[in-house]
Amino acid sequence: MLKRVLTGFVITIGISMVVILIIGLLIGVRYQSYIRLLESVVADEETTYLIFFQNALELRPTGGFLGNFVEVTVENRQLKEYRMISTNEFDEASPGIGVPSPDGFRDLLPEITQQQLRDSNWDPDFPTSAEHMIMLYEMQGGEADVSGVVAIDSHILPVLLEQLGPVYLETLGGDPVTSEDVLWRVQYDTNWGFWLRGTERGERKEALVELVNEIESRIRDLSWRELFRLANVLEDVASRKHIMAYFQDEEAQSLIEEFGWDGGINQDEEYFFQLVDANLGGLKADFFMERDISFDLSECEKGICGEVTIVYRNTAEESSVLNDVYKTYSRVYLPEDAFITEITGIERDGRVDYSVEHNRKVGGYRLLVPVNQSREVVIRYHQPRGEGDIVLFIAKQAGILEQNVTVLYNGIEQSFVMDRDVRIPL
Protein backbone atom coordinates (compact mmCIF):
# COMPACT_ATOMS: atom_id res chain seq x y z
CA MET A 1 0.00 0.00 0.00
CA LEU A 2 2.71 2.52 0.97
CA LYS A 3 4.65 1.84 -2.22
CA ARG A 4 1.52 2.42 -4.33
CA VAL A 5 0.75 5.65 -2.49
CA LEU A 6 4.35 6.87 -2.87
CA THR A 7 4.46 6.06 -6.58
CA GLY A 8 1.16 7.81 -7.23
CA PHE A 9 2.32 10.97 -5.51
CA VAL A 10 5.69 10.95 -7.23
CA ILE A 11 4.13 10.72 -10.68
CA THR A 12 1.49 13.36 -10.16
CA ILE A 13 2.74 16.04 -7.79
CA GLY A 14 6.49 15.84 -7.63
CA ILE A 15 9.05 17.13 -5.23
CA SER A 16 6.79 18.35 -2.43
CA MET A 17 4.91 15.14 -1.83
CA VAL A 18 7.97 13.03 -2.53
CA VAL A 19 9.59 14.77 0.43
CA ILE A 20 6.61 14.18 2.71
CA LEU A 21 6.15 10.53 1.88
CA ILE A 22 9.83 9.62 1.76
CA ILE A 23 10.17 10.97 5.27
CA GLY A 24 7.28 8.73 6.27
CA LEU A 25 9.32 5.70 5.18
CA LEU A 26 12.53 6.45 7.05
CA ILE A 27 14.42 3.63 8.72
CA GLY A 28 15.58 3.90 12.31
CA VAL A 29 14.53 3.57 15.92
CA ARG A 30 11.54 5.83 15.27
CA TYR A 31 10.30 3.79 12.30
CA GLN A 32 6.92 3.01 13.87
CA SER A 33 6.41 6.69 14.69
CA TYR A 34 7.00 7.62 11.05
CA ILE A 35 4.42 5.06 9.95
CA ARG A 36 1.93 6.42 12.51
CA LEU A 37 2.49 9.91 11.15
CA LEU A 38 2.00 8.73 7.58
CA GLU A 39 -1.19 6.92 8.54
CA SER A 40 -2.51 10.06 10.26
CA VAL A 41 -1.72 12.31 7.31
CA VAL A 42 -2.74 9.99 4.44
CA ALA A 43 -5.99 8.78 5.98
CA ASP A 44 -9.09 6.99 4.70
CA GLU A 45 -11.38 10.01 4.85
CA GLU A 46 -11.03 12.93 2.43
CA THR A 47 -8.36 15.32 3.70
CA THR A 48 -6.83 18.44 2.12
CA TYR A 49 -3.44 19.99 2.83
CA LEU A 50 -1.71 23.13 1.59
CA ILE A 51 1.90 22.62 0.49
CA PHE A 52 3.75 25.95 0.30
CA PHE A 53 7.00 26.55 -1.58
CA GLN A 54 9.13 29.19 0.16
CA ASN A 55 11.72 31.09 -1.86
CA ALA A 56 14.69 31.39 0.52
CA LEU A 57 16.40 33.86 -1.83
CA GLU A 58 13.74 36.30 -0.61
CA LEU A 59 13.93 35.41 3.08
CA ARG A 60 10.83 35.70 5.23
CA PRO A 61 10.32 34.75 8.90
CA THR A 62 9.41 31.08 8.27
CA GLY A 63 11.91 30.56 5.46
CA GLY A 64 11.06 32.53 2.34
CA PHE A 65 8.52 34.30 0.18
CA LEU A 66 5.42 32.18 -0.44
CA GLY A 67 5.46 32.06 -4.23
CA ASN A 68 3.28 29.04 -4.94
CA PHE A 69 1.25 26.42 -3.14
CA VAL A 70 -0.51 23.17 -3.90
CA GLU A 71 -3.92 22.06 -2.68
CA VAL A 72 -3.54 18.33 -2.15
CA THR A 73 -6.55 16.15 -1.38
CA VAL A 74 -6.15 12.52 -0.36
CA GLU A 75 -8.81 9.89 0.30
CA ASN A 76 -8.61 6.16 1.02
CA ARG A 77 -4.82 6.59 1.36
CA GLN A 78 -4.52 7.70 -2.25
CA LEU A 79 -4.29 10.97 -4.13
CA LYS A 80 -7.74 12.24 -5.06
CA GLU A 81 -6.85 15.56 -6.66
CA TYR A 82 -4.35 18.39 -6.54
CA ARG A 83 -4.06 21.95 -7.82
CA MET A 84 -0.96 24.17 -8.14
CA ILE A 85 -1.71 27.84 -7.42
CA SER A 86 0.35 31.04 -7.59
CA THR A 87 -0.09 33.01 -4.36
CA ASN A 88 0.08 36.27 -6.34
CA GLU A 89 -2.79 35.14 -8.58
CA PHE A 90 -4.71 33.83 -5.55
CA ASP A 91 -4.38 37.22 -3.83
CA GLU A 92 -5.23 39.20 -6.96
CA ALA A 93 -8.48 37.23 -7.27
CA SER A 94 -9.64 38.63 -3.90
CA PRO A 95 -8.63 42.33 -3.89
CA GLY A 96 -9.30 44.16 -0.66
CA ILE A 97 -9.72 40.96 1.35
CA GLY A 98 -7.19 40.34 4.10
CA VAL A 99 -6.12 41.60 7.50
CA PRO A 100 -4.10 44.70 8.47
CA SER A 101 -0.42 44.30 7.66
CA PRO A 102 1.89 43.96 10.69
CA ASP A 103 3.61 47.13 11.84
CA GLY A 104 7.10 45.92 10.93
CA PHE A 105 5.95 44.95 7.45
CA ARG A 106 4.35 48.36 6.86
CA ASP A 107 7.53 50.05 8.04
CA LEU A 108 9.28 49.10 4.78
CA LEU A 109 6.20 48.60 2.60
CA PRO A 110 3.72 51.27 3.77
CA GLU A 111 1.72 50.99 0.55
CA ILE A 112 0.69 47.40 1.38
CA THR A 113 -1.84 48.02 4.14
CA GLN A 114 -3.46 44.60 3.95
CA GLN A 115 -1.81 41.27 4.52
CA GLN A 116 -2.86 38.52 2.14
CA LEU A 117 -1.78 34.91 1.69
CA ARG A 118 1.59 35.59 0.02
CA ASP A 119 2.75 37.55 3.10
CA SER A 120 1.05 35.39 5.72
CA ASN A 121 4.23 33.84 7.18
CA TRP A 122 5.22 36.89 9.20
CA ASP A 123 5.38 35.05 12.52
CA PRO A 124 8.60 33.00 12.84
CA ASP A 125 6.67 30.47 14.94
CA PHE A 126 5.59 28.15 12.13
CA PRO A 127 2.46 26.70 13.83
CA THR A 128 1.21 30.27 14.35
CA SER A 129 1.94 31.25 10.74
CA ALA A 130 0.40 28.01 9.46
CA GLU A 131 -2.85 28.79 11.28
CA HIS A 132 -2.68 32.27 9.77
CA MET A 133 -2.16 30.81 6.28
CA ILE A 134 -5.24 28.63 6.69
CA MET A 135 -7.29 31.57 7.96
CA LEU A 136 -6.32 33.83 5.04
CA TYR A 137 -6.78 31.01 2.53
CA GLU A 138 -10.36 30.57 3.75
CA MET A 139 -11.01 34.32 4.07
CA GLN A 140 -9.85 34.92 0.48
CA GLY A 141 -12.12 32.29 -1.00
CA GLY A 142 -10.22 29.01 -0.69
CA GLU A 143 -12.80 26.29 -1.08
CA ALA A 144 -11.11 23.33 0.63
CA ASP A 145 -11.43 22.41 4.30
CA VAL A 146 -7.71 22.46 5.13
CA SER A 147 -6.31 20.03 7.71
CA GLY A 148 -2.65 21.02 7.63
CA VAL A 149 0.17 23.00 6.08
CA VAL A 150 3.63 21.93 4.89
CA ALA A 151 6.32 24.45 3.93
CA ILE A 152 9.34 23.51 1.84
CA ASP A 153 11.98 26.11 1.04
CA SER A 154 14.01 26.37 -2.14
CA HIS A 155 17.17 24.88 -0.59
CA ILE A 156 15.62 21.47 -1.26
CA LEU A 157 16.59 21.82 -4.94
CA PRO A 158 20.39 21.90 -4.39
CA VAL A 159 20.06 18.99 -1.97
CA LEU A 160 18.19 16.90 -4.53
CA LEU A 161 20.64 17.71 -7.33
CA GLU A 162 23.54 16.89 -5.05
CA GLN A 163 22.04 13.43 -4.62
CA LEU A 164 20.71 12.93 -8.16
CA GLY A 165 23.43 14.65 -10.20
CA PRO A 166 23.41 17.59 -12.67
CA VAL A 167 20.38 18.18 -14.87
CA TYR A 168 20.57 19.21 -18.52
CA LEU A 169 17.76 21.59 -19.48
CA GLU A 170 17.05 22.44 -23.12
CA THR A 171 15.29 25.61 -21.93
CA LEU A 172 18.57 26.87 -20.47
CA GLY A 173 20.67 25.97 -23.50
CA GLY A 174 21.60 22.44 -22.49
CA ASP A 175 24.34 23.45 -20.05
CA PRO A 176 24.38 21.33 -16.88
CA VAL A 177 22.45 22.75 -13.94
CA THR A 178 24.24 21.76 -10.74
CA SER A 179 23.54 21.89 -7.03
CA GLU A 180 25.85 24.94 -6.82
CA ASP A 181 24.02 27.10 -9.36
CA VAL A 182 20.46 25.75 -9.63
CA LEU A 183 18.81 28.36 -7.41
CA TRP A 184 20.28 31.40 -9.11
CA ARG A 185 19.96 30.08 -12.67
CA VAL A 186 16.31 29.11 -12.33
CA GLN A 187 15.51 32.32 -10.44
CA TYR A 188 17.22 34.46 -13.08
CA ASP A 189 15.46 32.67 -15.93
CA THR A 190 12.06 32.94 -14.24
CA ASN A 191 12.45 36.67 -13.59
CA TRP A 192 14.51 37.88 -16.55
CA GLY A 193 16.06 35.21 -18.76
CA PHE A 194 12.71 34.12 -20.24
CA TRP A 195 12.30 37.58 -21.78
CA LEU A 196 15.80 37.53 -23.29
CA ARG A 197 15.10 34.23 -25.02
CA GLY A 198 11.77 35.46 -26.41
CA THR A 199 9.41 33.49 -24.17
CA GLU A 200 5.99 34.88 -23.24
CA ARG A 201 5.51 35.83 -19.58
CA GLY A 202 2.84 33.17 -19.20
CA GLU A 203 5.48 30.55 -20.04
CA ARG A 204 8.24 32.02 -17.90
CA LYS A 205 8.33 29.05 -15.51
CA GLU A 206 9.05 26.63 -18.33
CA ALA A 207 12.58 25.96 -17.08
CA LEU A 208 11.34 25.22 -13.56
CA VAL A 209 8.72 22.80 -14.89
CA GLU A 210 11.38 21.08 -17.00
CA LEU A 211 13.66 20.83 -13.96
CA VAL A 212 10.95 19.37 -11.72
CA ASN A 213 9.94 16.83 -14.36
CA GLU A 214 13.54 15.64 -14.67
CA ILE A 215 13.97 15.37 -10.90
CA GLU A 216 10.72 13.43 -10.62
CA SER A 217 11.85 11.08 -13.37
CA ARG A 218 15.12 10.37 -11.58
CA ILE A 219 13.41 9.79 -8.25
CA ARG A 220 11.04 7.29 -9.89
CA ASP A 221 14.07 5.40 -11.18
CA LEU A 222 15.73 5.09 -7.75
CA SER A 223 16.03 1.69 -6.15
CA TRP A 224 14.52 1.26 -2.70
CA ARG A 225 18.01 1.35 -1.20
CA GLU A 226 18.71 4.66 -2.96
CA LEU A 227 15.30 5.94 -1.90
CA PHE A 228 16.03 5.21 1.75
CA ARG A 229 19.39 6.95 1.43
CA LEU A 230 17.65 10.00 0.02
CA ALA A 231 15.12 9.76 2.85
CA ASN A 232 17.86 10.04 5.44
CA VAL A 233 19.26 13.10 3.66
CA LEU A 234 15.80 14.68 3.67
CA GLU A 235 15.36 13.92 7.35
CA ASP A 236 18.49 15.99 7.98
CA VAL A 237 17.08 18.74 5.77
CA ALA A 238 13.93 18.79 7.89
CA SER A 239 15.98 18.97 11.08
CA ARG A 240 17.55 22.15 9.68
CA LYS A 241 14.08 23.74 9.19
CA HIS A 242 14.00 23.58 5.41
CA ILE A 243 10.88 21.39 5.68
CA MET A 244 8.24 22.18 8.32
CA ALA A 245 4.76 20.89 8.93
CA TYR A 246 1.66 21.73 10.91
CA PHE A 247 -1.37 19.43 11.22
CA GLN A 248 -4.64 20.04 12.99
CA ASP A 249 -4.78 16.35 13.88
CA GLU A 250 -3.39 16.30 17.42
CA GLU A 251 -1.58 12.97 17.11
CA ALA A 252 0.06 13.96 13.83
CA GLN A 253 1.15 17.33 15.23
CA SER A 254 2.49 15.70 18.38
CA LEU A 255 4.66 13.44 16.22
CA ILE A 256 5.84 16.40 14.14
CA GLU A 257 6.92 18.14 17.34
CA GLU A 258 8.64 14.97 18.54
CA PHE A 259 10.67 14.84 15.33
CA GLY A 260 11.51 18.56 15.57
CA TRP A 261 9.85 19.47 12.28
CA ASP A 262 7.23 21.88 13.65
CA GLY A 263 9.34 25.04 13.30
CA GLY A 264 8.02 26.44 16.57
CA ILE A 265 9.71 29.13 18.65
CA ASN A 266 11.35 27.49 21.66
CA GLN A 267 9.67 28.84 24.79
CA ASP A 268 11.42 26.74 27.44
CA GLU A 269 15.15 27.49 27.31
CA GLU A 270 16.26 29.97 29.96
CA TYR A 271 19.12 31.50 27.94
CA PHE A 272 17.89 32.06 24.41
CA PHE A 273 18.64 33.98 21.21
CA GLN A 274 17.14 34.00 17.74
CA LEU A 275 17.61 36.39 14.84
CA VAL A 276 14.72 36.67 12.36
CA ASP A 277 15.15 38.65 9.14
CA ALA A 278 12.44 39.55 6.64
CA ASN A 279 13.63 40.60 3.17
CA LEU A 280 11.09 43.25 2.13
CA GLY A 281 13.02 44.64 -0.83
CA GLY A 282 11.10 42.56 -3.37
CA LEU A 283 14.37 41.12 -4.75
CA LYS A 284 16.32 37.86 -4.35
CA ALA A 285 19.22 39.44 -2.50
CA ASP A 286 19.47 36.67 0.11
CA PHE A 287 21.46 34.69 -2.46
CA PHE A 288 24.31 37.11 -1.64
CA MET A 289 23.72 37.70 2.07
CA GLU A 290 25.99 36.39 4.81
CA ARG A 291 25.52 36.85 8.55
CA ASP A 292 28.05 36.24 11.34
CA ILE A 293 26.90 36.32 14.97
CA SER A 294 29.22 36.88 17.95
CA PHE A 295 28.20 36.66 21.61
CA ASP A 296 30.13 38.24 24.46
CA LEU A 297 28.48 37.05 27.69
CA SER A 298 29.55 37.48 31.29
CA GLU A 299 28.21 37.42 34.82
CA CYS A 300 27.48 40.88 36.18
CA GLU A 301 25.55 42.59 38.96
CA LYS A 302 22.35 42.34 36.88
CA GLY A 303 22.79 38.61 36.31
CA ILE A 304 24.03 37.80 32.82
CA CYS A 305 25.15 40.70 30.65
CA GLY A 306 25.28 40.11 26.93
CA GLU A 307 26.54 41.88 23.84
CA VAL A 308 25.59 40.28 20.52
CA THR A 309 27.23 41.53 17.33
CA ILE A 310 25.64 40.64 13.99
CA VAL A 311 27.66 41.37 10.87
CA TYR A 312 25.57 41.47 7.70
CA ARG A 313 27.47 41.25 4.40
CA ASN A 314 25.94 41.85 0.99
CA THR A 315 28.50 39.98 -1.14
CA ALA A 316 27.06 41.00 -4.52
CA GLU A 317 29.61 42.99 -6.47
CA GLU A 318 27.00 45.00 -8.36
CA SER A 319 23.27 45.54 -8.58
CA SER A 320 21.12 43.56 -11.00
CA VAL A 321 17.47 42.92 -11.79
CA LEU A 322 17.44 40.39 -8.92
CA ASN A 323 19.51 42.09 -6.25
CA ASP A 324 20.29 45.53 -4.90
CA VAL A 325 20.30 47.09 -1.43
CA TYR A 326 19.25 44.46 1.11
CA LYS A 327 16.18 45.75 2.96
CA THR A 328 15.14 43.84 6.04
CA TYR A 329 12.86 44.30 8.99
CA SER A 330 14.61 42.21 11.60
CA ARG A 331 13.71 40.94 15.05
CA VAL A 332 15.84 39.51 17.83
CA TYR A 333 14.18 37.14 20.30
CA LEU A 334 15.57 36.96 23.84
CA PRO A 335 14.36 35.57 27.20
CA GLU A 336 11.17 37.29 28.33
CA ASP A 337 12.85 38.57 31.50
CA ALA A 338 15.72 40.10 29.50
CA PHE A 339 16.11 43.86 29.31
CA ILE A 340 17.44 45.20 25.99
CA THR A 341 19.65 48.19 26.80
CA GLU A 342 20.22 49.26 23.19
CA ILE A 343 20.52 48.14 19.58
CA THR A 344 23.00 50.11 17.51
CA GLY A 345 23.94 50.21 13.81
CA ILE A 346 20.34 50.26 12.59
CA GLU A 347 18.11 52.60 10.57
CA ARG A 348 15.35 54.99 11.74
CA ASP A 349 17.84 56.84 13.97
CA GLY A 350 18.22 53.74 16.12
CA ARG A 351 14.51 53.21 16.80
CA VAL A 352 13.64 49.77 18.15
CA ASP A 353 10.14 48.28 18.34
CA TYR A 354 9.76 46.31 21.57
CA SER A 355 7.21 43.59 22.21
CA VAL A 356 6.70 40.18 23.82
CA GLU A 357 5.90 37.24 21.53
CA HIS A 358 5.80 33.53 22.39
CA ASN A 359 7.08 34.30 25.89
CA ARG A 360 10.14 36.01 24.42
CA LYS A 361 11.31 39.63 24.57
CA VAL A 362 11.50 40.99 21.02
CA GLY A 363 13.40 43.93 19.57
CA GLY A 364 12.51 44.89 15.99
CA TYR A 365 14.56 47.15 13.74
CA ARG A 366 15.02 48.21 10.14
CA LEU A 367 18.32 47.61 8.33
CA LEU A 368 19.68 48.41 4.87
CA VAL A 369 22.82 46.74 3.50
CA PRO A 370 24.08 48.18 0.16
CA VAL A 371 25.67 46.00 -2.51
CA ASN A 372 29.28 45.00 -1.76
CA GLN A 373 29.09 46.46 1.75
CA SER A 374 28.59 45.25 5.30
CA ARG A 375 26.72 46.51 8.32
CA GLU A 376 27.29 45.73 12.01
CA VAL A 377 24.39 45.58 14.45
CA VAL A 378 25.08 45.34 18.18
CA ILE A 379 22.47 44.25 20.74
CA ARG A 380 23.21 44.86 24.42
CA TYR A 381 21.01 43.28 27.07
CA HIS A 382 20.97 41.67 30.49
CA GLN A 383 18.85 39.04 32.20
CA PRO A 384 18.59 37.52 35.69
CA ARG A 385 20.96 34.67 36.52
CA GLY A 386 19.21 31.34 37.04
CA GLU A 387 20.16 28.77 39.66
CA GLY A 388 21.36 26.01 37.33
CA ASP A 389 24.06 25.73 34.71
CA ILE A 390 24.13 28.25 31.89
CA VAL A 391 23.26 26.69 28.53
CA LEU A 392 22.76 29.12 25.66
CA PHE A 393 20.15 28.02 23.13
CA ILE A 394 20.65 29.65 19.71
CA ALA A 395 17.79 29.10 17.28
CA LYS A 396 18.49 29.23 13.54
CA GLN A 397 16.00 30.98 11.31
CA ALA A 398 14.26 28.73 8.79
CA GLY A 399 15.47 29.31 5.23
CA ILE A 400 19.06 30.19 6.19
CA LEU A 401 21.66 27.57 5.30
CA GLU A 402 24.34 28.36 7.86
CA GLN A 403 25.95 31.10 9.92
CA ASN A 404 29.33 31.56 11.58
CA VAL A 405 28.86 31.85 15.34
CA THR A 406 31.32 32.75 18.10
CA VAL A 407 30.42 32.58 21.79
CA LEU A 408 32.71 34.20 24.38
CA TYR A 409 31.84 33.61 28.04
CA ASN A 410 34.10 34.77 30.85
CA GLY A 411 37.09 34.69 28.53
CA ILE A 412 36.42 31.22 27.04
CA GLU A 413 35.63 31.23 23.32
CA GLN A 414 33.74 28.70 21.20
CA SER A 415 33.39 29.06 17.42
CA PHE A 416 31.38 26.95 14.99
CA VAL A 417 29.22 26.99 11.88
CA MET A 418 25.53 26.77 12.79
CA ASP A 419 23.19 25.00 10.37
CA ARG A 420 20.49 24.10 12.93
CA ASP A 421 19.43 25.02 16.47
CA VAL A 422 22.25 24.53 18.97
CA ARG A 423 22.72 24.37 22.75
CA ILE A 424 26.02 25.73 24.04
CA PRO A 425 27.02 24.85 27.64
CA LEU A 426 28.90 27.81 29.14
Fold and architecture overview:
The chain has 426 residues and is of the alpha+beta class. It folds into 2 domains: 2-259, Aminopeptidase; 271-425, Immunoglobulin-like. Helix content is 29%, strand content 34%. The chain has helices spanning 2-12, 15-24, 31-41, 87-92, 103-108, 126-139, 156-164, 182-196, 206-220, 224-239, 250-259; strands at 47-55, 65-75, 78-86, 99-100, 114-115, 146-153, 167-168, 176-177, 243-247, 271-276, 289-300, 303-314, 326-335, 339-344, 353-357, 360-369, 373-383, 391-395, 403-409, 412-418, 422-425. The strands form 5 sheets. A 6-stranded mixed β-sheet has the order 15-16-13-10-18-21. A hairpin with a 2-residue loop joins strand 11 (289-300) and strand 12 (303-314). Helix 1 (2-12) packs antiparallel against helix 2 (15-24), helix 3 runs antiparallel to helix 11 and helix 7 (156-164) runs antiparallel to helix 10 (224-239). The longest helix is centred in the middle third of the chain and has 16 residues, at 224-239. The radius of gyration is 22 Å and the shape is globular. Residues 1-30 have low confidence and may be disordered.
